[in-house]
Write a structure and sequence with these properties.
This protein is an alpha+beta fold. The protein is built from 14 helices and 10 strands. A 6-stranded mixed beta barrel has the order 2-3-8-5-7-6, surrounded by 4 helices.
Length: 409
C-alpha cells in the first residue's frame, strides 16, 4: 500500500512538472481564494485582539453594564454598536450609577453617555463631533492619561470640558488649548484638559477618544436636554469576588427598575461583546463571499484535470493493459488534484499574510496568525481538491483500455 501511494505521488509530481505553467496558473486560482479568506480572518482577528488586549490592560477588576433587549442576537448587537440607537433606547440612568456606587465592593463608577453635536471655537466648527458625558471616576477606570491640564472633578466640572488630542488641533489649531473656550448648543465651555493621543482607536467603549469632547454628565444633560446612558463602567475593589459583585449589581438594578431585565452585566472576556461577536459575524459573512473565488479556483482545477485526462488517454490505456485497476487510475488523478490544491493553499496562506503585513504598516492592526486558521485552510483546500478532482478522476478510471490505446495526442 505504501509503495502504491509513493507511485501515485511520483506520477502526480511528474505530471505537474511537465506542465509547470499550467499547474502554476491552476494553483494561483486556489491561492487567490485562500489569500482572500486569510486576509479577512487575519484582520478581523487582529481587531478582536486589540479590544481584548485593552480590557486586559485596564485590569481584571472591570465590570460593564450595558442596555440589552429581547430581540434576536444579531439585531441586538447592531443596536448596541449604533450610538444613536443606544441613545434612544437605553434604559440605564444616572440613578443607576449612584446605585452601583453604593455597593461596598465597588471603588469607582463612570457612566458613558454619547451624543453627536456641533462644536464651535472661534472660526472653526465641527458639525458632527462626538460628545461624551461621564464623571470624575472616568480616568480611574479607563487606561487614558492627560497630556495637558486636569480632568473633570467636583471643583471644575461646571462649564468645563476635556478634549481629545486630534479634536484640539481641529478646533483650536493647537495641541494645548487649556483655558480656551468652545461652544456647544449655545453654551460656553472652558477646556481644562487634553487627553494624550490614544494609539488604539478601537476599544470596548466604541468611542474614538482622539476626536471626542468630554463633559460632566450632568452638564451634558443640562445643555442638550434629556439623555440616557449607553454604558456604565465599574471598578471592583477586588478581583476575587468579581462574580459576586456582578450579581450584586444585577440585584440592585433589578430593584431600581422593578424587575426590568433589559440590561446586561459583563466582566472578563464578556466585556468585548458585542464588538467581538459582531466581528465574528462580519468575518464569517466576508469569508463566505471570499470563498466564491475559492470555488472558481476549484473549477479551474477540474478544468485542468479534464484536459490532463484527455491528453493522457493513451497513458491510461497502457497502465490498464499492464494490470492497473480503475481504482489505481482514480487515485492517480485524485492525488494530482489534491497536490495542486494543497500547493495553491500554501501559496494562498503566504500571499494572504504578506498582504496582511503590508496593511499593518498603515493601520494599527497586527496580522493575526493562529493554528486554527491554518488548519481550516488546509482541510478546505483538501476538500476543494477532492470535490473538483473526483469527476475528472472518475472519467479517467472509466475509460476503456482498448479505446484508450488507440488514442494519440
Amino acid at each position: 500500500m505504501s509503495l502504491l501511494l509513493k507511485t501515485h505521488l511520483k506520477l502526480a509530481k511528474t505530471a505537474i512538472r511537465e506542465n509547470r505553467t499550467r499547474s502554476l496558473l491552476t494553483c494561483l486560482g486556489i491561492a487567490i481564494g485562500v489569500a482572500s479568506i486569510i486576509l479577512i480572518l487575519s484582520l478581523t482577528g487582529s481587531i478582536s485582539n486589540l479590544i481584548k488586549s485593552e480590557v486586559s490592560e485596564i485590569g481584571s477588576d472591570l465590570i460593564v453594564v450595558r442596555p440589552s433587549s429581547s430581540k434576536d442576537q444579531i439585531t441586538n448587537i447592531v443596536e448596541e454598536l449604533t450610538a444613536s440607537s443606544s441613545f434612544e433606547k437605553s434604559n440605564l440612568t444616572i440613578s443607576d450609577v449612584a446605585t452601583i456606587k453604593d455597593i461596598e465592593t465597588i471603588s469607582a463608577v463612570a457612566p458613558i453617555a454619547v451624543s453627536t453635536n456641533t462644536l464651535k471655537a472661534g472660526d472653526n466648527q465641527i458639525a458632527s463631533a462626538t460628545v461624551l458625558g461621564t464623571n470624575s471616576d472616568f480616568l480611574t477606570i479607563e487606561p487614558y492619561t492627560l497630556k495637558y491640564g486636569t480632568f473633570l472633578n467636583d471643583r471644575n466640572k461646571e462649564n468645563a470640558c476635556v478634549v481629545g488630542d486630534m479634536l484640539s488641533l481641529l478646533l483650536f489649531n493647537t495641541s494645548n488649548p487649556v483655558g480656551k473656550t468652545l461652544e456647544l448648543a449655545g453654551e460656553k465651555f472652558m477646556v481644562v484638559g487634553v487627553l494624550e493621543e490614544v494609539e488604539k482607536t478601537i476599544n470596548f467603549d466604541n468611542i474614538d477618544f482622539n476626536n471626542a469632547l468630554i463633559l460632566d454628565i450632568n452638564s451634558l444633560e443640562q445643555t442638550i436636554g434629556s439623555i440616557q446612558i449607553q454604558q456604565i463602567n465599574a471598578k471592583a475593589t477586588t478581583t476575587s469576588a468579581l462574580a459576586e459583585t456582578s450579581g450584586r449589581i444585577t440585584e440592585k438594578l433589578l430593584e431600581n427598575k422593578s424587575g426590568d431585565t433589559n440590561f446586561t452585566v459583563a466582566y472578563g472576556d464578556a466585556i468585548t461583546h458585542p464588538s467581538s461577536t459582531l466581528l465574528s459575524i462580519v468575518s464569517g459573512m466576508l469569508a463566505i463571499v471570499a470563498s466564491i473565488s475559492l470555488i472558481v479556483g476549484g473549477i479551474g482545477v477540474m478544468n485542468i484535470m479534464l484536459v490532463s485526462v484527455a491528453e493522457r488517454t493513451h497513458e491510461i490505456g497502457i497502465r490498464k493493459s499492464v494490470g492497473a485497476s480503475s481504482y489505481n487510475i482514480l487515485m492517480q488523478f485524485i492525488f494530482e488534484a489534491l497536490i495542486l490544491s494543497i500547493l495553491g493553499g500554501l501559496l494562498g496562506v503566504a500571499l494572504g499574510y504578506v498582504l496582511a503585513f503590508f496593511i499593518s504598516l498603515i493601520t494599527p492592526f497586527t496580522p493575526y496568525i493562529s493554528l486554527e486558521i491554518i488548519l481550516t485552510i488546509f482541510f478546505t483546500t483538501l476538500a476543494v481538491g477532492l470535490i473538483f478532482g473526483t469527476y475528472p478522476a472518475l472519467k479517467a478510471a472509466s475509460k476503456n483500455p482498448i479505446d484508450s490505446l488507440k488514442h494519440y495526442r
